[in-house]
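Email to the structure team, subject: ATP synthase A/B type C-terminal domain-containing protein model.

Hi all, the expression group asked for a predicted structure before they design truncation constructs. Nothing fancy, just the tokens so they can compare against earlier work. One-line instruction: predict ATP synthase A/B type C-terminal domain-containing protein, return tokens.
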Amino acid sequence: METIRLNVSLLRRRVPNLTSAAKSIGLRPATVSNLCTGKIPIERAEVKTLVALATLAKCSLDELIIRGESVEMIETKIKTLDLFAPISKGGTVGLVARPGMGQLVLLRELFYRLHDDGYSIILLKPEGNHPELKDLTDFDVVNVVDSIEKAYEQMITIGVEQEIIFTADRSHVLTGEIFELQDQLQAYDLKSITTFLLDLKGTVVDEDLPYGPLETLLYFDADLAARHSFPAINPIFSTSSVLEGAHLDQHHLFTQQRARKLLRRYRELRSIVTVRGLDKIPEADKEIYHRGERLEAYLTQPFYVAKEYSGIEGESVDLTTTLNDVRKILDGGADSLNTKALTYIGKL
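Reply from the structure team: attached below.
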């Protein structure tokens, strides 16, 4: 099957304020976001929607839709990320979270892991005083810059030899600086630059298309964070063009869809069990409930950078192992294990 996907980087350059632009021509921002991340595959999109997006970007449909080009995944060895929302190398990743949900800890862990894999880490510090960023700005693997100009200088210098992880706050998205920077870097023959965008204020949670078009969207989950199930990534709403838009790995996609279906039903049952008790759901649903519990527990993971707080050594789990373990849980192969035995482990 030929892979086709939306040219997200072109949209990002041509239509920086995509939320307002989409609304002005009658498109729902959520629909545009889902097309960008692949939650709605291009094949299922209405032709009039694609034509409208091409009109906004002032391009042809052939320019808007990329055919036959593979999307490379950055394997983080963090189970829930690699399974549900793989990071697209060279793409833009948006973190959707309120303060306290663990997005900064996840970023620090990613910096640690990806630096070990040879990436250079650049953090654009937002204006003002942000004590919550101290764990990132004091991290010795991070190159901290305080202006978009300095970020640009570092990228064109380092990017010739090394792949880059670049992180910025949403304040730089709202000014349009991030999109201008990405546009300027197109003129250079650089290795991949993967951009992470976060919102320190947390207002991003209440908006449909808070960062503009993205390849990967990581939604953090308040319920998981409240229960100290980290990383608190929502497995149902987090999406990525690596899988859903590009059809790169059918085994991965099939396992992800099965896991997402189980967790969606488990969450429905959990709300009933919390109020009425386990005995109030049918016997057939009890198996789904317990397997959902086990899968949710398995998706927790100890981080290297959190060892001094948790007392647990960090764990890395490669994608193949994650897929095999998840399939085993889905098929009942872990039914003899309780959730405690699955919480904050690496592989089964």
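The radius of gyration is 20 Å. The chain has a mean pLDDT of 91. Ping us if the truncation boundaries need rechecking.
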